[in-house]
Design goal:
Layout (H helix, E strand, L loop, with lengths): L32 E5 L5 E2 L5 E2 L2 E8 L9 E5 L25 E2 L4 E2 L4 E5 L14 E2 L4 E2 L9 H14 L7 E5 L1 H12 L6 E5 L7 H15 L16 H15 L2 H7 L18 H14 L4 H13 L8 H6 L4 E7 L7 H14 L3 E6 L7 H4 L1 H16 L3
Parallel strand pairs: 5-8, 5-11, 6-7, 11-12, 12-13, 13-14
Antiparallel strand pairs: 1-4, 2-3, 4-8, 9-10
Helix pairs in contact: 1-2, 3-4, 3-7, 4-6
């Protein structure tokens, strides 16, 4: 059942949410929706290549008001998807930002209409390298064109058009989601009222590119990768798991790892030849194994490359880019985040101030590292609720 009656209706109801048996503050059961476009006129990518047809998987929560002024676009990080809140039928775990989205939460679904879509190039329902190429009737694999953060945002703009929304109340995201939020403000400045970039950057540093390359090379070196043509056979599980393990290390901090694992052994101190003896080793192996069951290795290659290509200036000066932005900014960073250090968020603030863009900067004293944007719920809720109240005027 579609959540959207039709683009252009005076009111869009979230009919994909089922309210039976839900508790206070919860959204309940949700269905992922799929928007198909670019069947006739292919999407022109930043590389100049054309892609079509395109599917974007998305979910919505709450209700779009009659003036369509309460829509907030939530943008996910590298391995995220469209399922940001509520439960899928039969699932034990809610969406990836369920702590922040729902009645009475930071993104209060009693007030706001929340949209979250899986990115172009993903593997969670949106068109990506594992999708069928209509020209060959086989998975695109490495025939899939290079994509950028700008391409992801342009595809999302088509979805927002389809939903009949002229101007978003806010675009919000952490990590890669923050880059998309910044790109939204730069690409479509008159369609965004506010921006909340969290733990992100204007462009990747050499260190960030280096971590991405280690992950990609782990996948490419896996003999089961087969030049990207592994669909229908054995997947490059070892390479993808190692890529995830490297990524996971960067998501935590030295402090959070110390608190969570210390130097504890899993089964008592027994000397062995290179087994996963320490608890932290077992943790990384566990998360690597889980990841390969839900994520496509080629999508990992394409998306991490898009992260590395991202540079909001895109041939201009940053001042030129920000001079065209009218949205208000709430910039959040976390002191222990060494993947996207606070200096990178300060750079966003600095260019906002130089360009006369209204911006608030909040540096949260967290020990969780980069993961803090998913975990520091109370602090983020307080800041976001106050910010949105000022932007939108809701009491």
């Amino acid at each position: 059942m579609s959540q959207v009656a039709a683009a252009g209706d005076t009111e869009i109801r979230h009919t994909g949410t089922h309210t039976r048996g839900i508790h206070s503050g919860e959204i309940g059961i949700v269905d992922t929706q799929y928007y198909n476009f670019a069947a006739r006129d292919a999407l022109v990518l930043e590389s100049g290549e054309r892609l079509g047809p395109v599917t974007l998987a998305y979910e919505t929560y709450g209700k779009l008001n009659t003036r369509k002024t309460n829509a907030i676009l939530i943008l996910h990080a590298l391995s995220g998807d469209a399922h940001a809140a509520g439960f899928h039928r039969g699932a034990d775990k809610p969406g990836w930002w369920d702590t922040m989205i729902g009645p009475g939460k930071a993104f209060d679904t009693d007030k706001y209409f929340i949209i979250c879509s899986n990115v172009l190039g993903g593997c969670m329902g949106s068109t990506g390298p594992s999708s069928i190429d209509p020209g060959t009737k086989r998975p695109y694999a490495l025939d899939f064109p290079v994509i950028t953060i700008k391409d992801m945002v342009n595809a999302q703009r088509h979805l927002i058009d389809y939903l009949g929304i002229g101007k978003l109340l806010s675009v919000v995201g952490g990590s890669m989601g923050g880059m998309q939020a910044l790109q939204w403000a730069a690409s479509f400045p008159h369609r965004v009222k506010s921006v909340i970039p969290i733990a992100t950057t204007l462009k990747h540093s050499p260190q960030q590119i280096a971590f991405g390359e280690v992950g990609r090379q782990a996948i490419i070196a896996d003999p089961d990768w087969k030049g990207g043509n592994y669909y229908g056979g054995k997947i490059p599980a070892k390479g993808l798991a190692i890529a995830r393990m490297v990524g996971h290390i960067t998501y935590m901090s030295d402090t959070s790892m110390g608190e969570k694992f210390g130097r504890r052994f899993k089964n008592g101190k027994k000397l062995s030849k290179f087994g996963a003896d320490f608890e932290v080793e077992g943790y990384l192996h566990h998360h690597g194994d889980i990841f390969v069951k839900r994520f496509d290795a080629n999508s990992y290659l394409y998306i991490t490359k898009a992260l590395d290509y991202f540079d909001l200036s895109n041939g201009k000066t940053l001042l030129e880019v920000f001079n065209g932005i009218t949205a208000k900014f709430l910039i959040m960073a976390f002191k222990s985040d060494w993947l996207y250090p606070v200096y990178q968020s300060n750079e966003i603030l600095k260019v906002c101030k130089l360009a006369g863009v209204e911006a608030t900067y909040c540096e949260i004293n967290s020990t969780y590292g980069h993961d803090a944007f998913l975990l520091e719920v109370d602090e983020e809720t307080h800041l976001i609720r106050h910010f949105l109240k000022n932007v939108h005027g809701y009491e």
